[in-house]
Amino acid sequence: MKTFVAIFTPNFDKDYFGNVVSWASRIPDAVKISFYAEKSCEKDIFDFLATGANDAKSEIAVSARQNWTLTELLATIAADNGDDCETVVFAWADCPFYDDDLTSKLYKQHVEYAAEYSYADGWPYGLVPEFLAAGTVRILAKLAEQKLAGEKDAQNKLTKDSLFNLIKTDINSFEIETLISPVDFRMYRLEFTCSTKRGALLCKHLAELRQKNGTNALEFCNEAVKSASVLHTLPYFYSIQIAEKCTGNCIYCPYPQAYRQKYGKLPSEADATAFMDYERFSKLIDGVKAFSDDAVVALSFWGEPMYHPEIVKFISKVLEYPSLSVLIETTGVNIDDSFCEKVKAAVDAAPKRTGSYPAVMWIVSLDAVTQKTYEVLHPASELTLEQASNAAAALRKAFPDSTYVQMVRTEHNESELEPFFRGHDNRIIQKYDYFCGKLPQFKPADLSPVNRNECWHLRRDLQILSDGSVPLCREYMFDSCVGNAFYENLEDIWNKGVPLLESHINKEYPDICRNCDEFYTCNF
């Protein structure tokens, strides 16, 4: 039985490309390895192959295009393979940790059970490739042409789950086999890929770990999820306070109380100048881009961002970078059609996003379906529920795919949960956070897992106050600051969170963490 190895190559990493070539050459019965490359890395591939640095005995070919779509890739693979090989292995060149043993196991399983599509489940992405019967590739090429034409072109973009997503559109028509991990690593959301700055850093730490701990895949993964350097790469969610003022006094928010303790007044009485200024914000966003490369930037870390007089300018600054997206969580104040048109114009003028999130995302806090309940949760709000709903409607009109209404689930609105859920599309049900005892315990149900995981927020979030101060975690409010983002390097500040994450890995928790049940929630 012959095997055709198809490797999609969206980018070229000289440190890891040889690993993928060597792995591909060791796949059982591999007679041809074909790289499907973006034009930008075609020369790098040919230069690498010309050095003779690879030990592949199989025939090697390279096909390059400016931009591949799933439809084009499947059609090309089907044509290149023809009837030569019974099995097609599909892999990505930015996955340098494909495992020989797991690949061989899935290959044998695929052949033994005459599967049409086989994949691994429960393992971190990038350890095991996907297997297809040659005839399945031809079927999928036609299916992609039918399903992904015209208005569905956006779905034609190649992603790590493109093949499976296409198969899911007619899943009962395929014989599918799965290689299941004895330990479910999915909860860690690890991808052993080097296609992003975050991924390249992860792979660097993984390479060091593998060198130290051997090559057994299960042991390797178990060590990886206990390593702070693997779990704590770069922040992906930046929560930034751009305005101190807020008149909501929501019962699920500790900000008014904490603000009064620090400044002797409520945030509704904040000075007219209590905003982050644009120059500092601009430099901060430049730093975010330089450090993380890709991220979601929320402008809602305490305070109401819609009070900021330059909110549109702030949004435009973030959107200068195609790999950054904006999130704004608001009560709906100061939002009307005119405002939405200004933001939409800023989005239209900005470069197209390169990440998986829209340019701007909105969350409007409604929390109720009746005015009476709305007043319980928002006792000092400037808005009525109807006005907040109208703001959400204006946003939805301008941003139909990225506007959400939210209910924070408490004892006070539990009876309205179902009508809220049924009455809204694009809704978010947020768990109640009592901020480690700073607020009364109003949660109607305990959703925390039996076994505690390492805190997602320590792994992925960085929060910045309006004066540049960076609390170790949002639960600390204004305390336990580990630096100032206006004056210090973001990397140095970020790395100060490693000791706390290491304590979580060792199941040791300071008091504030021990009393917190936000560890299992994740922003992005």
Q: What would your notes on this structure say?
A:
- With 524 residues, the protein is of the alpha/beta class.
- It is 36% helix and 16% strand.
- A 7-stranded mixed β-sheet has the order 3-2-1-4-6-5-7, sandwiched between helices. A 7-stranded parallel β-sheet has the order 13-12-11-10-9-8-14.
- Strand 2, helix 2 (42-50) and strand 3 form a beta-alpha-beta unit.
- Helix 3 runs antiparallel to helix 5 (134-147).
- The protein is globular.
- The two termini are 43 Å apart.
How is the topology of this model organized?
Elements: E1 3-9, H1 17-25, E2 30-38, H2 42-50, E3 59-65, H3 70-81, E4 87-92, H4 100-112, E5 117-121, E6 130-133, H5 134-147, H6 162-168, E7 176-180, H7 197-213, H8 217-224, H9 228-231, E8 237-240, H10 255-263, H11 278-292, E9 295-298, H12 311-319, E10 324-330, H13 337-349, E11 360-365, H14 371-377, H15 385-398, E12 403-408, H16 417-423, E13 427-430, H17 456-460, E14 461-464, E15 469-471, E16 481-484, H18 490-495, H19 498-505, H20 511-514
Helix pairs in contact: 3-5, 7-8, 11-12, 12-13, 13-15
Summarize the entry for a quick read.
The protein has helices at residues 17-25, 42-50, 70-81, 100-112, 134-147, 162-168, 197-213, 217-224, 228-231, 255-263, 278-292, 311-319, 337-349, 371-377, 385-398, 417-423, 456-460, 490-495, 498-505, 511-514; strands at residues 3-9, 30-38, 59-65, 87-92, 117-121, 130-133, 176-180, 237-240, 295-298, 324-330, 360-365, 403-408, 427-430, 461-464, 469-471, 481-484. With 524 residues, the chain is an alpha/beta fold.
